[in-house]
Specification:
Blueprint: E1 6-13, H1 23-36, E2 39-46, H2 52-55, E3 60-63, H3 68-78, H4 81-91, E4 96-98
Parallel strand pairs: 1-2, 1-3, 3-4
Length: about 100
Amino acid sequence: MKKQKINLTIGWLYPDLMSTYGDRGNISCLTKRCEWRGIEAGVLRINTDTKLEKLEKLDLIFGGGAQDRQQEIVMRDLKGSKGKIIKGLTEKGIPALFVCSYRI
């Protein structure tokens, strides 16, 4: 029997703004653990200009931490449709790991 190939899309929230605490290492760890299990994991870097339809394809959501200034920029962006979509995904059972504080 042929083994089914598993693909996983990890959404990395605002990596250019919210990566103060070594969050790149968390993404590296997640993708490496997937690789060890034969799961092909891609990372979608979600920023202020990310198209909303791309969010619907996420299988896991990761958000790192940052200083107050960067958090304010992110929170302004999440107050719109993007935040509603991400909240809806977590309510549907899409796993999420948030380091620091997020209010969606």
